[in-house]
UniProtKB/TrEMBL annotation:
Signal sequence interval, chain numbering: 1-18
Species per Swiss-Prot/TrEMBL record: Hibiscus trionum
Topology relative to the membrane: Single-pass type II membrane protein
Molecular functions per Gene Ontology: glycosyltransferase activity
Domain Exostosin GT47 per the UniProt entry, residue ranges: 30-376
Pfam families: Exostosin_GT47
Similarity comment: family membership: Belongs to the glycosyltransferase 47 family.
Keyword Hydrolase: no
GO annotation, cellular component aspect: Golgi membrane
Subcellular localization: Golgi apparatus membrane
Name of protein: Exostosin GT47 domain-containing protein
Ribosomal protein is among the record's keywords: no
PANTHER family: EXOSTOSIN HEPARAN SULFATE GLYCOSYLTRANSFERASE -RELATED, XYLOGLUCAN GALACTOSYLTRANSFERASE GT19-RELATED
Keywords carried by this UniProt record: Glycosyltransferase, Golgi apparatus, Signal, Signal-anchor, Transferase, Transmembrane
Amino acid sequence: MAYFTLSFLLLLIKFASSQQISNPITTEDCNNRWIYIRGLPSSFNLDLLAKCSEYPLFDDFCPYLANHGLGQKTHSKSRSWYRSDPLLLELIFHRRILEYPCLTNDPNVANAVFLPYYAAIDSLKYLYGPDVNSSFQHGTDLFEFLQSDEPEIWKKHMGHDHFLVMSRPAWDFCQPLDNDPPLWGTSFLELPEFYNVTVLLPEGRAWPWQEHAVPYPTSFHPPNLACFDAWVRRVKRSRRTSLMLFAGGGGIGATPNIRRSIRTECNNANSSNNGNNTSFNKTNRIYSKICNIVDCSNGICEHDPVRYMKPMLQATFCLQPPGDTPTRRSTFDAITAGCIPVFFEELSAKMQYRWHLPEDKYPEFSLFIPKEEVVFKGLKILDVLMAIPRSEVRKMRDSVVELIPRVMYRRHGSSLGLRTKKDAFDTAIDGTLQTIKDKLNNMLEVEH
Ligand SMILES: *[C@@H]1O[C@H](CO)[C@@H](O)[C@H](O)[C@H]1NC(C)=O
Ligand SMILES: *[C@@H]1O[C@H](CO)[C@@H](O)[C@H](O)[C@H]1NC(C)=O
Ligand SMILES: *[C@@H]1O[C@H](CO)[C@@H](O)[C@H](O)[C@H]1NC(C)=O
Ligand SMILES: *[C@@H]1O[C@H](CO)[C@@H](O)[C@H](O)[C@H]1NC(C)=O
Ligand SMILES: *[C@@H]1O[C@H](CO)[C@@H](O)[C@H](O)[C@H]1NC(C)=O
Ligand SMILES: CC(=O)N[C@H]1CO[C@H](CO)[C@@H](O)[C@@H]1O
């Protein structure tokens, strides 16, 4: 199966690297928006996919290569839903940029240069493979290539106009160069060679460096406007029978943390009163369940969106506690389901997805409850949620629904109607072009 997918993809990408594909019309104004795709040897992208089963300490990701990185459909008749793995964002992005309307074959007229390097997939050999002790080398071969093959493309702006995608959190790529032996991660983002390159990834560092966060891919990739609209109608119509939902794992141990507090509160809430409680008054009695937990331990939900999307459709608030790192794919699943996200750390979203989720809109579409208040000061999440008037909840949900297009990666080759909606990819490209433009302008000012 994987071989089949791969050879198909190879053909497509080979074909597409010489010319752009499937752009029946170009209505877009391409002024200042030209992108040049740097040709790279297949060792930097396709060959890495062929090794999808070669990391013993990391799950075989061959099944998720299907459909150009969207994964297999959840079932044969599904049109919009796939078993997507966020690791394949690099491939999803590569496939989508091939149909970007303003591609150019001339690097000299390009406003930005895309490097189709599958950086996170390449990092697996350092993170989980035999090369763990040379993780500071991650990226050096790419840099050498860029300096030796048509070096004038890099030199034109010293890399400031280049960008690439890495499909894992920055945390995995910022091992200090002098850590010997390495503790965790490669040093890709620490290499001065790449400081000038704009990097798109699902989670950045607390301080904005060269990286910008973009949404994790969810499993929703509609092919046309009808499929998109049908989903949005379903989201709006859905009866929200649980007040709050947590889909995830963790919080089982004895150490106090936010996931443990959520579990404790959840268990107490529905066992002591199934909606029949004096503080659970008329306003809130529409909920048949106060709290719902979808246990996603051991990665069982990862490629099975039905497990959590159905409960999310039925919940009003979806809790987004930090786990190993502050961000979660689940934030975007929740938004897709019209479930209002509840954040416990600013780093979980507000300090990350500035292009996709504007900072000033957070009070309209989400709730923030500092985790310290819950874990150490006894604040009950339920009390906070129940105190929100129903009219306010409805307004918040409307704002969440408005965000759905911006956080989805629509299917490649989707209908022209759907292409009129800016999705996560389009928004990321806009942000990247603006960032690069600002950088180049700043450089000009410095020179004068
Ligand atoms: C990496 O280095 C550590 C410490 O020097 C050593 O114990 C380990 O075996 C090395 N790992 C590999 C895969 O070479
Ligand atoms: C990055 O840009 C700076 C100027 O802003 C330049 O001095 C430096 O050499 C560039 N780095 C590389 C690796 O090209
Ligand atoms: C809830 O409590 C009220 C008054 O305490 C009682 O009359 C009612 O039967 C209870 N309902 C349920 C479903 O337990
Ligand atoms: C009612 O629910 C609130 C909030 O969950 C809880 O603090 C309180 O103890 C409950 N009261 C009873 C009588 O179960
Ligand atoms: C119901 O409870 C909420 C929160 O505890 C409170 O704000 C609201 O005024 C209550 N409504 C009624 C009718 O008691
Ligand atoms: C009595 C009851 O319904 N208990 C449930 C409370 O919620 C937790 C988490 O969803 C469940 O595990 C309990 O079974």
